[in-house]
Known about the structure:
The complex is a heterodimer.
Chain A: H1 7-23, H2 33-46, H3 67-80, H4 89-101, H5 104-115, E1 121-124, E2 140-144, E3 147-155, E4 165-171, E5 184-190, E6 196-201, E7 210-221, E8 225-226, H6 232-236, H7 243-266, E9 268-269, E10 272-273, H8 278-306, H9 314-337, H10 357-371, H11 376-387, H12 394-406
Parallel strand pairs in A: 1-4
Antiparallel strand pairs in A: 2-3, 3-7, 4-5, 5-8, 6-7, 9-10
Helix pairs in contact in A: 1-3, 4-5, 7-8, 7-9, 8-9, 9-10, 9-11
Chain B: H1 7-19, H2 22-33, H3 41-50, H4 68-81, H5 87-100, H6 103-115, E1 120-123, E2 144-153, E3 160-165, E4 169-174, E5 180-184, E6 194-203, E7 205-206, H7 210-244, E8 248-249, E9 252-253, H8 258-271, H9 274-287, H10 289-317, H11 329-341, H12 346-354
Parallel strand pairs in B: 1-3
Antiparallel strand pairs in B: 2-6, 3-4, 4-7, 5-6, 8-9
Amino acid sequence: MDLSYSQENEEYRAKLQAFLQENWPLPESLGDLEARKEEFRRRATAAGYMMRAIPKEYGGSEQPLDFLKGEIIREEIKKHGAPTEVVHIGTGRVVPVLLAHGTPEQKAKWIPGTVSREFMWSQGYSEPNAGSDLASLKTRAELVGDKWIINGQKIWSSRAHKDPYMVLLVRTEPEDVAPRHKGISYMLVDLRQPGVEIRPIKQISGEPEFNEVFFTNAEAPADAIVGGRGNGWNVSRMLLRFERAAFSGINWADSLIARAVKTARSTIRNGRPAIEDPSLRADLARLQARAMAMRYSAYRDMSMEAVGEPSGDYMLMQKLYLTEFLLKLDDITRDLLADDLMMLRPGEGGDGLKGNAKWVDATLQSLKIRIAGGSSNIQRNIIGERVLGLPRDQVGVNARKNQEAAQ
Amino acid sequence: MNFRLNEDQQQLQGTIAKILAADRMQPRTRAVIDGKQSWDKETWQELIDFGLTGIVVPEENGGMGMSLIELALCAEELGRSAAAVPFLGHALATIAIVEGGSDAQKAKYLPGLASGEVLASVALTEGNDTWAPEDWQMKPEGGTISGHKRNVPHGAFAQLLVVGLAGGALGVVEVASGGVSCETFEPLDLTRPICSIDFDHAKVDLLENGPAAAVRTWDAALALLSADAYGGAWKITEMARDYVQVREAFGAKLGDFQAIKHQMANIVVEVEPTRGLYWFAAYSFAKMPEKATHAASLAKAQTSEVYDKVARMCTELHGGIGFTWEFDAHIWLKRAIFDLAWGGRPQRLFIRAAAQTDW
């Protein structure tokens, strides 16, 4: 174990500070703010401060795993007010899959554009009748000549209305392939074509973040499958051990605690700032204990993976642990917000929500996180079976058998 | 830069895990639970031979000169096995002298503690909920102390006591020099019996660097208890996991029912991440002392709360058998309650941790 900010790390920090001084802000002659931010990110990647887990040949900076340096980078960029690394499905999910399972041609075709955000991705996994029971998905692709012809419907694809590329889980093998998930492939599809229709879904927060996507004889090239035909289930469930993927949730948890403390400072209870209440302080410390448990468990996990040691099952549990964290955070913020919880948007006048609007949204968003990406009950199935070795749920298996027997 | 165990640490944990293997320990711990012996001397001797008592003692004082990280790894295994040995008090007395003793005091006391020839414990709290050094009232007068101390682990068997004194000072009392009497009673956790001790003009040797060492000793206690809680929580989780795979009801194994599976999943999701907490508490004690109080307070509070909750749920999952003396689950349930209470209740420790932040 060694977490010390060694001499080497302090030198790294000094070098980074010098880099930031020199490269942000950039002169307006380089374009508008967005263009300048992009230029900064390009320079930061070239200097090894962003896209650290992605090989150089694909536009990353290919740095050895080092979460302390990762923390130094986050701290210093934040302190300096420079643009942060953009986290999106492309770099978070698609690139790791391509790096692990893609052919050299697929890597060369897709990774550089994804890193530069020329290719932006949405995810086409769930279907109206295949959510938690994802392996029952029905969208099909048939190989006709040198093209895949896709028919079916996907749902809950966030950003499909904005981002033109989709990672699709699609049935490419005959219906009677057993088990069912063996018939599924992981396919990269361009949504900008006549056979694709996208309809936004308005969610409970009032925002249309998600979409339904309809495929009617939509097309994809023959080489659109990553990881081989019928192997999409394994490919899509690859555990993401990318520094960025594991820590985005943990850093988010830390920042939420900081925000909750800020809200508790500005909320008055019994004539005093709420943050002075010992039981509230204890509850905030309880959250901090959970955030710390996540951070150091992830450090351990990644340190062991980096040297090829089996690290156990922590990463399988982090999602459920994080959703429980959010529930406990919600308990605290709901009490701090009191009446303000009844308003969804900040108003114009004195009765507006001011700083509290974010928490009202967060209280709804925390519910989204419990449902999306494998609902909490599905997580419990996975943990029960894979971590504890308990038997597969027979209710679902039997029901399906009975249904198939009846057909 | 890494947060993994090196080969030596892995080997150390592996070796102590073998000494404390369940099939060796079960009859020995059971003998203590059933009152056939007061504590497990056989295992303690094996642990001494292994070197447990010398781990954190500097090499010049007859020890191995390792850190709290190594000791906490051992504490995890002791918690897993529910060993009825006087580890907690002995380890904390040793740490108090390592942290607070002058060179002469270290040379005088540590070799005997490292070799295990002398058994030690700590007498810190005086009332109820008075674990913080600033809570201690006992004052030395003319080189002696008088007064009452509570919750001394394995205190009835200790030959040397490190005593918490007013102003966070620490003193060493050798029981053989007289003025020390012990009141025993039936404790909840029989694997770590606590007693009250009365001092009546007992000769005391004040540790040179007492007040600083008192906070360090408390932090070490919290880190070690959180390691114990992590190990114990996993053990009782495994007991429940094994039980639901053999016990049948309604024509199926309990584990076939999703309600049971989900309960088990909820349990393990609480337990596993606390390893990172206890590791960081031990690591920061050894390498980042400025963060140790915060980390150790959070680690003990959180891990012992989880252990208590999980031990209750796992006991419940065993049904009626779980409520019997003959079945072993209550050994861990009671250790969980000990870990929750000894060294300070979670709520107070969470508030102590909050005081270490800029909130």
